[in-house]
Amino acid sequence: MTATTESRVREIDTPYEGLSSTATADFNRDGYVRLSNVLSPETIAEYEPTITSEVIRLNTQHLPLEERDTYGKAFLQVTNLWEHNDKVKELVFSKRLAKIAADLLGVHSVRLYHDQALYKEPSGGITPWHADQYYWPLSSDRTVTVWIPLQETPMEMGPLGFARGSHNFSLGRDLPISDESEREIRRTVLEQGFEDVVEPFSLGDVSFHRGWTFHHAGPNRGEVPRRVMTVIYMDADIRVAEPTNDNQRGDLHWVDRTAVGQVPDTPKNPVLYDARA
């Protein structure tokens, strides 16, 4: 391992110094936070080629864009890359990112739910309005997703946008990502007066959003894929809940079929940060 590579590994496992004194309060109020310079350009350059290579290798979506439904047009989706590649595992298991997640949630420790690469192809469609936690059979809202663009993401590439404060609003939580969720949640956002915050991401910017925060993204009008890596964290003490829909029943495999009422303390769900350790 070279000295340069060692410095990059240290960056992903050392505390982030840019978290403001109000960040947790802002996160609790707004349901999301966007942070600057979380990862250096050098670190992103270290991991992006491997992630992209794994997305190409593991992708199972081969239909032309025009033959896909709205969900299929939104992005190529590849999950739990960390189980397939040790280099990707370094980033997914980053103590820096996990500590930010724990600090924002106000918990001592967080464990992994799963990772997910989301690559929006050129001419890829919108990501409809939705809330992630619709899919998760978990007992509380102590969950957070980090959204890590692997390139600068101007407006024409479809950066993630958030309905500020929507994580405290229950209407629309029963909708999977679909044309219906786009229509109904968009209407709710307008009717309830939630601010739709959509801004470009500079290289190194990342966002963290709560499981029930409504969010969406525009189409990719650029000439290259919008490459994004995500990691979903949960309070390390969270328990598996009785699924309320078929998608949650399917998602039980992310917690290795842990029984309802039990903490998913499994090899698939390691603790990634513990302030008491």
TrEMBL record:
<protein>
    <submittedName>
        <fullName>Phytanoyl-CoA dioxygenase family protein</fullName>
    </submittedName>
</protein>
<dbReference type="InterPro" id="IPR008775">
    <property type="entry name" value="Phytyl_CoA_dOase-like"/>
</dbReference>
<dbReference type="Pfam" id="PF05721">
    <property type="entry name" value="PhyH"/>
</dbReference>
<dbReference type="GO" id="GO:0051213">
    <property type="term" value="F:dioxygenase activity"/>
</dbReference>
<keyword id="KW-0560">Oxidoreductase</keyword>
<keyword id="KW-0223">Dioxygenase</keyword>
